[in-house]
Amino acid sequence: MINILSPIQYIFVVTIVLYLLDSIWEIGSLFRPGRFSKRLADYFILTGLSFHCAFLIVVSIRSGTLPISTLFESSTFYLSLIVLLSVILKFLYRLQSLTPFVMPIVTGFSIASVALVRNDLTLTYNLKTFWLYAHIIPIFLGYASFSVSFILSIMYLTQERQLKKKAFGPLFDSLPSLETLDALMWKTITLGFPLLTIGLVSGTVWAKTSNILGLLWYLDPKVLLGSLTWLVYAAILHLRLGASFHGTRVALVTIAGFIIVLLTFIGPFLMGHNHGYEKRSLTLEQEIAPETTGITKVKS
Q: Are residues 280 and 266 in the same domain?
């Protein structure tokens, strides 16, 4: 049997195991706090995030650029930002109930991302450019903010449903008030929107100056979906100015916006549009011993 993971990628496997343990302890601490320690859950998530960051740092050092050379790297980079932002909000606002919602989703996507290890797409353009950094970092931070706002929307709808049914159990007691969740949804959206705007503007400059997407760069599916994402969140912010648009309505539209974010992130690749990536061909030796090739090789 061919080993499809390199030694470096096993660091990410350790991350997944720690995230899985954290998910179990996070959920368990809500319903059986005496049996599942919140302190141990904090240990799992912080240790997992440390391994996750270590993996990305090693990948970056080997490639000499951001860990986005392949779809696998991009996915793990995106997931790390979601966990990082969630941890910051958890400790900044003492929001212990956030990570029990976040970590099972992140763990599931982390496991799914392993399937991208053998994906044969890699970025072809010179990655060491200012515009790429100015495009990727804000875009990914914006996506991470919208992902957390999606989780907060789920929490809002869950709490609202419990109030309507008067189901005052352990989960109800652990969740913040609807006002707090509504305010945090607003803050994460207002954080993500300017980041997305900066990323789209710098990406436009990069696409036009590098010609990486060709003359009809504006018709690239990822560009079109990114623009649609911007319009959705711009509409949310505009409607938010009205006193009647809050709470449930914001939560539902935010969930719809997150679905578009996912489609923007991975959808074009599933449809066969590579957005600056191209297929790389591995030699027989590389196929048999992938650990000797690494996971960040960029074909120029």
A: no
Would strands 121-123 and 277-279 be described as parallel, antiparallel, or unpaired? antiparallel
- Strand residues in the chain grouped as ranges (E): 121-123, 277-279
Torsion of CA 283, 289, 293, 296, to 10 degrees: 100
46 and 165 in a single domain? The answer is: no
The answer to whether residues 245 and 297 belong to one domain is: no
3-class SS letters over 166-181: CCCCHHHHHCCCHHHH
Q: Are residue 70 and residue 130 in the same domain, yes or no?
A: no
> Considering only CA atoms, which of 259, 272, 211, 208 is closest in space to residue 233?
259
Q: Higher-confidence residue: 271 or 46?
A: 46
pTM of structure: 0.84
Task: Say how many residues make up the chain.
Answer: 300
Q: Which domain holds residue 135?
A: 125-275
Give the pLDDT score at 278.
Answer: 55
296 and 261 housed in the same domain: no
Q: From the centroid of its chain, how far is CA 42?
A: 20
| pLDDT for res 279 | 61
Is residue 80 domain-shared with residue 145, that is, in the same domain? no
Residues paired with residue 278 on neighbouring β-strands, in sequence order: 122
CA 213 vs. chain centroid, Å, equals 24
Query: How distant is the alpha carbon of residue 284 from its chain centre?
Result: 33
DSSP letter at 219? G
9 lies in the same domain as 88 = yes
Residue 147 neighbours by CB distance under 10 Å: 26
- Domain count across the chain: 2
Whether the pLDDT of residue 295 is over 70: the answer is no
DSSP secondary structure letter of residue 37: -
Q: Are residues 218 and 87 both part of a single domain? A: no
Check if the beta carbon of residue 22 is closer than 8 Å to that of residue 44. Answer: yes
